[in-house]
Structures are given as C-alpha cells and as structure tokens.
Amino acid sequence: MAKNKPEGYLSGRESRRISKENRKITSELEKKRKRKNVPESEYLTKMHDPNNAVEFDNLHTYFFTDAGTVKSVDGVTFDVPIGKTVGVVGESGCGKSVTSLSLMQLLQRPQGQVVEGEIRLNLGDKAVNVAKMPDKELQHLRGNFMSMIFQEPMTSLNPVFRIGDQVDEVISLHDGEGKSEAEVKARTIEMLELVGIANSEGVYKMYPHELSGGMRQRVMIAMALACNPRIIIADEPTTALDVTIQAQVLDLLRGLKDKINSSIMFITHDLGVIAEMADYVVVMYAGRIVEKGTAEDIFYHPAHPYTIGLMASKPVVGKQVDKLYSIPGKVPNPINMPNYCYFKDRCEMCVKQCNGVYPCEISLSKTHKVSCYRYADEAGRREWEKSTEFIPDSEKGKGGNA
Fold this sequence. Notes:
This protein is α/β, with parallel strands linked by helices. 34% of the residues lie in helices and 20% in strands. The protein contains 13 helices and 13 strands. The chain has an eight-stranded mixed beta sheet, sandwiched between helices. The protein has a five-stranded antiparallel beta sheet with strand order 1-6-5-2-3. α5 crosses α6 (181-194) and α8 packs parallel to α9. The chain starts with 11 loop residues before the first helix and ends in a 15-residue tail after the last helix.
C-alpha cells in the first residue's frame, strides 16, 4: 500500500512490481500443471472417510491480480458425503463459487490458482487429489464423475448451436465410446424428458433464445446429469427463476439425486432453499468457513454472529416488521485482510479475545463446528445453549422441538 495515499491507491510503479512478482509465482504453478507424462502416484490419494464423495482439506485458492493477491478461498475444510446434499451459503464474494470451480479446475488461469491443500475425489476403486491432476486426466473426470450446473444458463449455453447439438457433445465426449449418432441422440432425448421437458423432440432442434429461463435451466441440468456423475455442483441454479419454476427445479434435483445416487454441493444465497434441500450446511464469510454442521444444527442452533445475522435478515411468514434486519458494516478488503477475526468489525457480539488472532475451529458437538471466541470457554457455550433453547441429542424425540 502506498504511503500517504488514499486507501486502495496504487502507483504505476507499485502495480508493475506486484505484476512482476505475481507472474513469477503463476509461471511456476502453470509449469507444474502443464507437465506431460505425470505419474499417477503424484495425484493418487486416500479418502479420510470412504463414505465421502469429496473432501476439501485446507484448500487455498488465490487470484494473483495487478493490485495484489486475493485470497478467495483461504483454508476451507469440509466433506460432501455420498448420497447427501451439502449447502454452501454466504454473501456474494465469500468464496462459494470459487470453491466449486477449484473442484472442477475451471478457475480463470493463470491468475487463479490452487496454491495449497487437497481436494480428494472418491472414484470408487481409488481416490485422486484433483488439485494435483494434469489437465488431460481431468478431462476424463469432468462429466463422468463430477459436473456443474452453472448459475446463468443463457451465458453457459452457446447461442449459435441448437440444444440437441450441445447435449450430444457432452455425451459424445464423456460417455460416447462405442455409441452411434442415433444412440447419442436417443440418450439426449431421454435426458431432456427426465428433466421434465415435455416436447423433447422439438426442444432438441431449438436454439437457447427460443426457450424460457426455466427451460434453459432444465437443459443445463440435463447436460450436467447426462453421464450420471457422482458429485453434482449446483451453483445458484434457481436464482434467475420465478418461485413456481424454482420449486419445480428443486424437486427435480432432489428426485434425480436419489435416482442416480449422486451427492449435491448446493451453492445459494437463499436460506429457504438450503433449509429445504440440504442435509449439511457450510457457512462461508470472506473466504473462510465460519460455521458448519447439519441443517438442524445451523437452523435451530446458529452459533456464529454472522449466521445469526443471516437468519435475522430473512423475512418470516406471519411476522410483521417495519424494516428487515441487515448486518452492519462491509466485508474487509480481500487484498489486505486483517490478522484478527474477519467479522470483528461488523460483529455486535464481540468479547475480549476478539482482539487476538483469527479464531480456531471449536467443536460444539460431533457435527457442529464454529470459528468464534464466544465459545472458547465453558461459560460462553452455556450461554449459547441457553439462548438457543438447546436440546441435547440424547433428549431429542422426547416431546421437545429441536
């Protein structure tokens, strides 16, 4: 940061210095990624729990910009169990989408790079560390083992190709070995029908602009599920849809997940969608996980002040308020993050320890974890249990409401 200059100001000389340093770093990382004939032993790994489809372990994904290094994902650790839905929630810019793009290895390179940590993907007979895999090998995993439903279907679908050609291409590339053109087309028609498109033969010949937003989103879901992947990443798939179409898409995803026994990593801003869809919830803020647990843990016993603020800011049916609550303040500068808790400057529940370094992860139960100094001692935990009318696991099902 330049001395005696407004915050965020960079001189041309400083910008060139940062660019030069960043190019050196990204060139080394790119050189490592573009190596040929990489031995399989380099990226083979072992799942910590074979019941997980994906394990993110201390993931660090940075963007090396001319203004500095943006730590978009800064030490993220969580699991996606087989056959379950994990909801990732947080405000814009918290690192949700970058976490999913790190798994797919679709980061905007060379600026975007996974610099540390592991992403373990369960292939059944073996497990691989996606972060270390060469591009050629990754091509066999995308579509077959992991696929992504992107946020905006109009920008994801190619406007100059017909719907059928685009879905055909996915099947031909990833699951087309030994299949004729007629068989590939039949599979495409089958997928379009599976996602609830009635006029599948007609839609097959249409262009994206001839379809409504809901229909385009269904086509994106058909493309993602065409090869029966083990892990489906849904990056805000219902954001641009109206409420009735949103409900249909959510029902569709839930039904298809059970039908092909896949896991879903569901990214959204909408807490209502998370409550309806997710088995587990991960709350992210400024590139880090501040709280994670089962859906019941997060919705009935929120612990982190940020999670509590998110819950308070959503409208509640039957409750009349003059003005919805909003979390005060703003997210810190991602290029110059503080060395204390990132939420401290916006927090209304600070304690003395908050002046120290970033808080470590604290276990409130077997499934519920939070990064907050309020629970660093027994007194803080007792206060939380009392304020949330906490019911221990052993007491659940005995007439109380969890």
